[in-house]
Amino acid sequence: MFFCPFPGCGRVFSTLWGLKQHFRREHRPWLWRRCPVCGQRKRLTVPRRPFRYGSVIKHIVFREDSAHQAVAYLILRSDGVSNRSLYRSRRDLARRMFSRPRQFAFDPFDGGDV
User: Cβ of 90: how many Cβ atoms within 10 Å?
Assistant: First the structure.
């Protein structure tokens, strides 16, 4: 059993792949205004435009701690992965982290005025 960590969601999935698909479709990480793990906010470069697949996603992907890497597994596409060992390590972290109920510390859509 794998639990969605998004605040207020509470969905449960029998496979990690199901959680990953749900997460990308329902919680749209490309629109996030802050990191759900550590709460770091990103400034919009163009007013009133959502982030392109960029700054918050890059922040999550390039952090090396296990919480960020587990979330990176959920938000990144898995087709055309060039580094298989990195993909597998992120997947294993996600299996361990999302196999029990937990929620993100911060709401990624709440960017506030930055």
Answer: 23
How far are the Cα atoms of 15, 45, 49, 92 from residue 98, in angstroms, in the given order?
Answer: 11, 33, 31, 10
Domain boundaries, given as residue ranges, for the chain: 2-97
What pTM, to 2 d.p., does this model score?
0.79
- Phi and psi angles of residue 34, each rounded to the nearest 5 degrees, phi first: -155, 160
Q: What is the mean pLDDT of each run of 10 residues along the chain (114 residues)?
A: 90 94 88 85 58 70 89 81 83 93 82 50
Run of H or E residues at 12: strand 12-13
CA distance 61 to 10: 24
Q: How far is CA 60 from CA 4, 13, 17, 76, 105, in A?
A: 17, 23, 19, 10, 14
